[in-house]
Amino acid sequence: MEEPLKLLHTVVQAIHPLDAGDWDALSRIWKPYSARRKEIISVPGETERFLYFVTDGVQRIYYLDDQNREATLAFTYRPSFGGIIDSVLLEVPSRYYYETLTPSEFIRAPYAEFKAVANERPAVERMIRAGITQTLSGILERLVEVQCFSSEDKFRNLLKRSPHILQLVPHKYLANYLGIDPTNFSKLVNKVRI
């Protein structure tokens, strides 16, 4: 458990530095959690009760409409927070699936315990607010890409943001994430060089 907490500490300190007391209170609530490949961790209709921090593996968040069409919304992998964050923080049923694409390792914290720490420790609350603000900024950038960019520009931006993503995530999910036909995605993989 020591290594995952060190990794979490590095990420937390980059978002919003915590002093030793705040970090100690936050670090005590995390426990190891493992999931097999293609395991659904969160499902629509159920309220997510945990905050996840990914220490190994690749996961995706996706939406499934009433006609069984999938929309891949996000990928998570080491070292990042994961899970259905709006369900956790708003304490409402999820509208999305959180699925492992590979065998995955996490540390996770029950939201009730996290909330108690954040209420007692204002720096922890500021850290989560700063992290959510960074995430929201990324989501807004992604909305612009989805609505305004060509397929090739979406692909180029993805590779600039995450150059290793082609090796981590099956291409069919990347094509879905970008809103590109899988055949055209394959052509872009062979054509575009970054």
UniProtKB/TrEMBL annotation:
Gene3D superfamilies for this protein: Jelly Rolls
Domain of life the protein comes from: Bacteria
Name of this protein: Cyclic nucleotide-binding protein
